[in-house]
Amino acid sequence: MKGLKNDPDAEDTSKIQSTASPSLSKTIGIADLEEWQNDNEFILTGYRRAQYSWRTTFGSVFEYLHNETVNIHSHLWPAVAFFFMAVTLDISFTSRYKSAKRSDLVFMTLYLLSAVFCHGASALFHTIRCHSQKIDARSNALDYAGIIVLVVGSYTPSVHFGFPCSVKLQITYCVIIVLLGLGGSFVVWDPEYAKPTHRVIRTIIFCALGSSGWIPLIHLVIVHGFEETLIHMGQGGLVIASLTYVTGAFLYAIRVPERLYPGKFDYFFSSHQFLHFCVVAGASIHYAGLYKAMQFSLTQSCH
């Protein structure tokens, strides 16, 4: 196995054969994991073996229960739902909002597509991470890229609907958000920036991206006040969604509840699963808020 750890691209033939053996259990405990597979010391059982085979990797989605099953399906089916909403939006949108501009439809569609990408990338990551060390690392980067896409896809329509009478402000804020998103994507995909020595710059970029949507929100509060901004203008959806995301991320960061009862939440109700549920809930809440924000923008008379 030394060759495999030094060269993630190498395939260990004996491992492939042993993984495919019907005499072996399809799941293993934490003590039997390869080093690169272990990322949560409080999840003790239900791990898939390193597969080194695409057939068995994708087969694990439906063939048997393991500790990634809920993580896969909790984002796979929301991705399908958001995609259906995106492809049918034009029909429902144009019939209900005849005064809406084409740009309104574009921003709503982009948000739904960003949700599709985020949830789809997450489901794919949790599906294929057991394939090999290299695939685990690259799909993890894809998972983070999905988060960045959802952040950018959430903030830009909020800006569009929040400043219906100022194209200049829309462009300024959206450009800043997109540029920070590109910076975050570069950090995610470049292996150099994954090193511990670049932790500070990673933190700065992600904090800047995370706060980039709050600056225009504060701008709106200053101009319109809290009640009109958060309730009548629909921007409260962004706030509630953000708090939902943070709640899920906090539980995941502190590994609760599995930290309290190691081995009891290996298959169901682990912190990562709660994070997934919070992401789905937050994305849905934000979508409802965007509809309200759009309805408010259509009532504005710009001079």
From TrEMBL:
Residue ranges, compositional bias (Basic and acidic residues): 1-14
Keyword Oxidoreductase annotated: no
Subcellular location: Membrane
Keywords: Membrane, Metal-binding, Transmembrane, Transmembrane helix, Zinc
Residues holding Zn(2+): 126, 272, 276
Gene Ontology terms for molecular function: metal ion binding; signaling receptor activity
Chain positions covered by the region annotation Disordered: 1-20
One Pfam assignment: HlyIII
A GO term from the CC aspect: membrane
Membrane topology, from the record: Multi-pass membrane protein
GO biological process, any: intracellular zinc ion homeostasis
Transmembrane intervals: 75-93, 105-124, 144-163, 170-189, 201-223, 235-254, 274-291
Protein family per UniProt: Belongs to the ADIPOR family.
Official protein name in the record: HlyIII-domain-containing protein
